[in-house]
Design brief:
- The protein is α+β, with helices and mostly antiparallel strands and 215 residues long.
- Helix content is 42%, strand content 18%.
- The protein is built from 5 helices and 10 strands, in the order αββββββαβαβαββα.
- The protein has a 6-stranded mixed sheet, with helices on one face. Strands 2-3 form a two-stranded antiparallel sheet. Strands 4-5 form a two-stranded antiparallel sheet.
- A hairpin with a 6-residue loop joins strand 4 and strand 5 (92-94).
- The relative contact order is 0.18.
Length: 215
């Protein structure tokens, strides 16, 4: 009689091996894709929080909530003081010399598309409100720009408010500006009322300035 016990044993071992392989494959597909996706998500969150954008903000706007720490300044906290040279003038301007006056601290560059779109509105508001003590300090990120382009920009839009040159990026870093344009609306007591990232409409500029004007 033929003894098939060896064959049965072989089949059992093959079955065991196949079961182990199936369990391993299931584990790989069920576990590793999820952890990989989570790792990618965590990495993207980390990059978003720590890495500044390499291109200017174009059409993307956001109002930073009150009492929230953002960038290098905090809403309802004093605006950090600084001193910068003025375009084509042998003088410097310090923010603290404007204490008692409402100030729009505006970070911009000549290549910034939203900056070009809102510049006429900024000039219009400045001329309308400067008699009330309001001023705009337009901080050009000169380390990423050129004086020739800055002068051409100012001439094109007929800007009459002070143009400050951040040639070493020190003030941009002080305020930790991460996109252009970025606007800090500062009350007469030098407390920051609002931070706006991105381009603004004419109506928004007028409304935000009205919030910091002396009653």
């Amino acid at each position: 009689m033929y003894d098939d016990s060896n064959g049965l044993k072989s089949l059992r071992w093959i079955g065991v091996v196949l079961a182990i392989i199936a369990a391993v494959v299931y584990y790989l597909f069920a576990y590793y894709p999820n952890t990989s996706a989570q790792a990618v998500e965590n990495k993207e969150k980390k990059v978003a929080l720590t890495s500044p954008p390499t291109t200017p903000t174009q059409g993307v706007t956001s109002i930073v909530p009150r009492s929230t720490l953002v960038l290098g300044a905090s809403i309802e906290m004093p605006a950090p003081d600084f001193s910068l040279p003025v375009l084509d003038q042998p003088t410097t301007i310090r923010l603290s010399q404007f204490k008692g006056r409402p100030v729009l601290l505006y970070f911009w560059a000549s290549w910034c598309v939203p900056c070009r779109l809102e510049s006429p509105y900024l000039e219009k508001t400045y001329r309308a409100k400067k008699e009330s003590g309001f001023t705009i300090l337009a901080v050009n990120t000169t380390s990423q720009d050129s004086l020739q382009d800055v002068r051409a920009f100012v001439k094109e839009f007929g800007l009459t408010f002070p143009i400050l040159l951040d040639e070493t990026d020190s003030v941009s870093q002080l305020y930790r500006v991460r996109g252009l344009p970025t606007s800090f609306f500062i009350k007469p007591d030098r407390l920051i009322q609002k931070i706006f990232i991105g381009g603004m409409s004419n109506g928004q500029i007028e409304d935000f300035v009205a919030e910091i004007l002396v009653p």
